[in-house]
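so my prof wants the structure for this chain in the tokens format not the other one, which i didnt know existed until like an hour ago. anyway here's the sequence
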Amino acid sequence: MSNNTHKAATKFIHAGTVPDPSTGAIMTPIYQTSTYVQAAPGVNQGYEYARSQNPTRKALEDAFAIIENAKYGLAFSSGVAATDAVIKLLNPGDEVICANDMYGGTYRLFTKIFEKYGIKFIYVDTTNVKNIEAAVSANTKLIWIETPTNPLMNITDIEAVSHISKAAGAWLCVDNTFASPYLQNPLNLGADIVMHSATKYLGGHSDVIQGALMMNDDSLREQLYFIQKSCGAVPGPMDCFLVLRGIKTLAVRMKQHCENGQIIANFLRNNVKVEKVYWCGFEDNVGYTIAKKQMKDFGGMISFTLKDDSIEAATKVLTTTKLFALAESLGGVESLINHPASMTHASIPREKRIANGLADGLIRLSVGIEDAEDLVEDLRVAIG
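here's what i got, hopefully its the right format
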């Protein structure tokens, strides 16, 4: 079923899946095979070799397209692999404008891998689109944004940036991991490519590593498929099956993530030991108006700092929670607590982190779908 006119809950459950024609199985089979028998050389049933095509992956890629209101979806072995494929569209001398607040793994990929191949990355505060305009040059080929950002939850106006990218003749790629397709659809706002770490909300159960790209342009799809096939960073069929399963419950999970997120954000803001809460759902948040315009709700990702800004105070909280598990990643049904400076963003030099507002004592939460009262009590005890 591929009807993009259905409402979110219906669309996510049926996206990319049809009953198996040979058995009637309602769930897409796991095609655990590396190759396919051909009737004659070059005569096949649409599948030749599993790096290029796999029926389970095809179902997932169809689902990726549907849930992001896209024409095409491509699955990768991780979110970083999906990001890697986008940058491989570029040539030495090309320039990329990107956010100064972004996932540490993306920053590491840009600076440690691709800079040495002559691609230039220009980091700006993308919450003010004038900064992006000022950074555009004749060599600008890609604008890369996260919104909300990881971990400071900054918001960038996707539609406004899309006007800049089109005027510059550049692609706009949006990392939509924190919002998920349930809350935000960047292609509808003018983006050319959407990237997800499907490990997070799309999978939803902390049991798979995977990435996704969605796009509408035929040529862009062919270029990215060629990179996917040629470089080989593809997910296995079991991983594809798990993400297909996860997508089916995305709508109900995101509703609970958002509801719990709001409760936790307000609890933290009213806690006398908390200095600042980073959550885009507060009406006095600088990005609130744009977030409300381009997002359906505000999500379950929250960061905060304590009034005691020492590493020791933060460590006490990080190691005392019982329900919030101290771990990297996010977007699963269980709540996680994280220390960006030493975990997810450790690859960013400290002076850059501090300059961008990422304090040593910053704590990031991925609010799960447990009972909100239990989560509040867990944080109350840990904060003390």
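also thought this was worth mentioning. The mean pLDDT is 95.
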